[in-house]
Design brief:
The structure is a single chain. This protein has about 280 residues and is α+β, with helices and mostly antiparallel strands. The chain contains 4 helices and 13 strands. β2 and β3 form a beta hairpin. The longest helix is centred in the N-terminal third of the chain and has 16 residues. The relative contact order is 0.22.
């Protein structure tokens, strides 16, 4: 069994394509917890040979998911010819951010946690929007882009850029303690006109540094107010950690992993992602 260290700091960061960045939500199956990780699109050019395009990396994952779940999910036309901002990159266990949005990460140290969540679309009949935890980085080191050696430039979206910003931040996770979740853990409900972390989870986690669990995309990702309590909550629920962005082989964990529902859920996949609470 994996023995996760207890973090002094932990942060919750939204990642993945959505209605604002990409005009699409990646698929998930609430009955099994399976999902496909699809990064947001990128407009900035990459250094030679470092671009990551959607079809070669995402289409096989969608095909595997579709075959396992009796669905026909393909990349939408608006993503077919675009580059991905592949961040986090679970193949290399890295996450990058700008100096402004990622400023809190400069205070992170070894064994602190970065939790990732995404807005996914259920392939079940309701096609509802699902917010779930999809991955974890247990911090090994935090560096500025200027300090990342050239042989690591293909390990993160911020170091793959043609015009790199030296003050951007790159976090590397510890192997064996970090990775993509083999199944997502559902965490949100529609409450007070937007999606928020479920009230029972806010209490179990010890709270977030954001108003009433507001978790839609933000320029100011929330911190866990009590990282050790969150760690206690996660440990017995921790899915298998995978050092890959999307496995294309059959998974070995077919059991249901959605947490019990709390409160009504809208069936539309429309979402608002502007503003900060």
């Amino acid at each position: 069994m994996i023995q996760l260290p207890t973090p002094m700091r932990a942060i919750l960061i939204r990642v993945g394509v959505d209605q604002t960045f990409g005009q699409w939500n990646a698929p998930c199956n609430p009955g099994t917890g399976e999902f496909v990780y699809v990064p947001i699109p990128q407009d900035k050019p990459n250094a030679e040979g470092l671009a990551k395009h959607y079809p070669p990396m995402i289409s096989p994952a969608l095909a595997t998911f579709s075959a396992r779940n009796g669905a026909k999910i393909r990349l939408p036309n608006q993503l077919l010819g675009r580059r991905m901002h592949l961040d986090p990159d679970f193949d290399y266990l890295t996450y990058g951010d700008t100096a402004t949005r990622g400023r809190k990460l400069l205070g992170f140290h070894e064994d602190d946690w970065i939790m990732f969540y995404a807005g996914l679309c259920s392939v079940q009949a309701s096609s509802r929007l699902v917010y779930g935890l999809i991955g974890l980085l247990v911090v090994d080191c935090v560096r500025r882009v200027a300090d990342v050696p050239p042989f690591e430039h293909d390990w993160n979206a911020h170091t793959r850029l043609l015009d790199r910003t030296d003050t951007d931040i790159v976090v590397t996770g510890k192997p064996g303690l970090s990775g993509r979740f083999s199944r997502y853990l559902e965490i949100a409900e529609f409450r007070n006109r937007c999606y928020r972390v479920r009230q029972d989870l806010l209490e179990a986690w010890g709270g977030l540094s954001v108003n009433d669990g507001w978790i839609q995309r933000s320029a100011n990702p929330p911190l866990f107010l009590n990282p050790s309590r969150f760690a206690e909550w996660l440990r017995p629920r921790l899915p298998k950690l995978q050092a890959t962005n999307n496995p294309v082989a059959l998974l070995d964990e077919p059991t249901c992993t959605s947490l019990p529902e709390a409160g009504p859920q809208p069936v539309s996949t429309a979402e608002s992602s502007s503003g900060v609470e």
